[in-house]
Design brief:
The chain has helices at residues 16-31, 43-56, 65-75, 87-92, 94-102, 116-122, 130-145, 163-174, 183-197, 219-227, and strands at residues 2-4, 38-39, 61-62, 80-85, 107-112, 151-155, 179-182, 211-213, 235-236. With 239 residues, the chain is of the alpha/beta class. The protein has two domains: 2-63 and 186-236, 3-Layer(aba) Sandwich (Rossmann fold); 65-183, 3-Layer(aba) Sandwich (Rossmann fold). Strands 5-4-6-7 form a four-stranded parallel sheet, with helices on both faces. A three-stranded parallel sheet has the order 1-8-9, with helices on one face. Helix 10 links the parallel strand 8 (211-213) and strand 9 (235-236). It starts with a strand and ends with a strand.
Length: 239
């Protein structure tokens, strides 16, 4: 059961109060469909609204920030970790808090990269394209904060589409390859662990995707970029 609040994105430049309000509305919709776990597939929502969601939702809630922080902690060899994400995610300090909870001596540096989301949605994913120039600019600002970063967290669920270009830009800026941590993949693993712990894994039969969106504009164009396949059908909903 997927709900994309496409009518109100991007969330990354909205106030924390608005993000919480929108997130609770999304959760209420999902709960009407008797879901057994809620995944917060947005780092901005994970940063601002995870506590409110956990208090309001009677099933397990898994966000992107804590699993992403755990994966970065495991990947880093020197404790110097960079985080790139939306303005809202970076300003929240959520990754810094999560990482320092795992390693009190860790050095965490964040960099907001607001132009990367529209690049992902436009399909401008090639590192030789404008992506390379923009990524190098942002990562140059990150390197100025800490040149010893060895691990980079992709703190936005759009960024895996740009992973190759970001990795090349990071290698050019830092003069070496950085470990790349995908918060979305880390969240998926955490969701699997939560389902196992709750005894709620369904092991028989094939899964299916029911897609709901709040606005259908460009959906047929954008969905395959994120899903890797055309979207067979979707339902338009009003929250």
């Amino acid at each position: 059961m997927y709900l994309g609040d496409t009518a109100r994105v991007p969330y990354g430049n909205k106030s924390p109060e608005t993000v919480v309000r929108y997130s609770l509305a999304c959760a209420r919709f999902l709960l009407r469909h008797e879901v057994k776990i809620v995944l917060v597939a947005c780092n901005t929502v994970s940063a601002h609204a995870i506590s409110a969601l956990a208090d309001a939702v009677p099933v397990p809630v898994v966000g992107a920030v804590v699993p992403g922080a755990r994966a970065a902690h495991a990947a880093s060899k020197n404790g110097h970790i960079g985080v790139i994400g939306t303005l809202g995610t970076i300003q929240s300090g959520a990754y810094e808090r999560a990482l320092r909870g795992l390693n009190h001596g860790a050095r965490i540096s964040g960099q907001a990269c607001p132009l990367l989301v529209p690049l992902a949605e436009e399909g401008w994913t090639q590192p030789e394209d404008i992506l390379g120039a923009i990524a190098r600019r942002y990562l140059g600002e990150l390197r100025a904060k800490d040149p010893d970063i060895d691990t980079l967290v992709l703190g936005c669920t759009h960024y895996p589409l740009l992973r190759d270009g970001i990795a090349r830009a990071a290698a050019a800026v830092f003069g070496r390859e950085l470990a790349m941590v995908d918060s979305a993949s880390a969240m998926a693993h955490a969701a699997g662990e939560a389902l196992v712990a709750a005894g709620a894994v369904r092991r028989e039969g094939a899964g299916a995707l029911a897609c709901h969106v709040t606005d259908a504009s460009r959906l047929e164009e954008l969905a395959p970029r994120f899903l890797g396949e055309p979207l067979a059908s979707f339902a338009l909903v009003d929250l």
